[in-house]
Automatic annotation (TrEMBL):
Pfam families per the UniProt record, alphabetical: MFS_1
Protein origin, superkingdom: Archaea
InterPro entries, A to Z: MFS, MFS_trans_sf
TM helices/strands, residue ranges: 12-32, 38-59, 132-154, 160-178, 190-213, 225-246, 258-275, 342-364
Keywords linked to the UniProt accession: Membrane, Transmembrane, Transmembrane helix
GO MF, one example: transmembrane transporter activity
Name of the molecule in the record: MFS transporter
Length: 367
């Protein structure tokens, strides 16, 4: 990996070091601080992904039109809006700050992926995306560690979350220092493959519910808030570690996607029999969810970069768009089903993840 890959990857590290603490705090703030019902949290998450998908597509399109670096830096700077969530005086203010910053995160992501494509050759693309994912999620892991420690020592969200703006600003500086090349990809466009990946990613988005749901599940099972937020640390840590392993292994894009989707399906269904076993039963499932995420975040953008032709930014935007549609549907359904029983919610997620694997299997058979 060249130095530019690490600049972009460590930009992701510092971004997650900041805003992932807000992501883990948000369900706790809404459900346990402002006492909103869980289905409202599900609706808010659906809006964040549903409206955010428009920002994702727009960010990818503008990356092709105005330059990936410029668009990535602009969106990254505005992610700092998330940091004000802890200062909210009521649920509406918390939702407003969270959504505005999250939309900017969506706007930034396709452009940052395009920057990574611009500094790598096609043969090292999956390794580069695995490296990005690993270092990215490592920052998120550290964010959850300091958040959990601060909550354990009884610091409030208002005292913790405003400081998350600092690493996000460092992240923006690293993007500024990166030097993407003007050329993007010499690959031929394959609409058939791109379409299949988009469909599979949308289904995976439906099955990949917000991490807030496992956080709520563990908090309910253990009656300890800090164990709930620690759930996210296990997810991010396992995903980061496995992403680094993927950067060293030679796995085909199609095989990687199928494995990731199957692991996610197994992990989701496991929440049903293990709910009453507390953190000892639930944390291993969260680790499996992290591994499934590492597979998807490595091989989905790698494959899209190879079949998007010269419009890599738009291809990444379409990928984020399809995942956003899935998140919008999935979190809405999860919120409603969870209001009746966690059994229905996690059973639904498992079946849809299995559908993602079958979609890619059909593609491989057809190929």
């Amino acid at each position: 990996m060249n130095g530019e890959v690490y600049k972009i990857s460590f930009s992701a590290f510092f971004a997650d070091l900041g805003y992932q603490a807000v992501v883990a705090s948000f369900p706790i703030i809404l459900v346990f601080q402002f006492h909103l019902p869980i289905y409202i949290y599900g609706v808010v998450e659906s809006v964040s992904y549903g409206v955010g998908l428009v920002f994702s597509f727009l960010g990818g399109f503008m990356a092709d039109k105005y330059g990936s670096k410029r668009v990535a830096i602009f969106g990254n700077l505005l992610i700092t809006l998330l940091s004000f969530t802890g200062l909210a005086q009521n649920s509406l203010e918390a939702i407003g700050f969270f959504l505005s910053g999250w939309f900017m995160r969506n706007f930034r992501s396709p452009a940052r992926r395009t920057m990574l494509v611009q500094v790598t050759d096609e043969k090292e693309r999956s390794k580069a995306f695995a490296t990005l994912h690993s270092i990215d999620f490592l920052g998120g892991l550290f964010a959850i560690v300091y958040l959990t420690l601060a909550l354990y020592f009884h610091y409030s969200f208002a005292e913790i979350l405003p400081f998350t703006a600092i690493p996000i600003l460092i992240s923006s500086l690293l993007l500024f220092l990166a030097r993407p090349r003007s050329s993007q990809s010499t690959s031929k466009r394959s609409g058939r493959v791109l379409g299949a990946v988009v469909i599979a990613s949308m289904l995976f988005g439906i099955s990949t519910y917000s991490p807030g749901f496992p956080i709520i599940t563990v908090t309910q099972s253990t009656s300890r808030i800090y164990l709930g937020t620690l759930t996210y640390a296990f997810f991010l840590g396992s995903s980061s570690g496995f992403g680094m392993l993927l950067s060293r292994l030679k796995i085909g894009d199609y095989s990687g996607l199928i494995l990731g989707y199957l692991v996610t399906s197994v992990a989701s269904v496991g929440f049903i029999p293990l709910f009453h076993y507390g953190e000892f039963g639930l944390y291993p499932l969260v680790i499996l969810l992290g591994i499934g995420s590492a597979f998807a975040e490595t091989f989905e953008p790698s494959l899209v970069s190879k079949v998007s032709g010269q419009n890599v930014g738009t291809g990444m935007g379409v990928l984020s768009l399809s995942r956003g549609i899935g998140y919008f549907i999935g979190n809405s359904v999860m919120g409603v089903l969870y209001s009746f029983s966690y059994v229905y919610a996690y059973g639904f997620a498992s079946l849809v993840a299995l559908g993602s694997a079958l979609t890619v299997l059909t593609l491989v058979r057809g190929k």
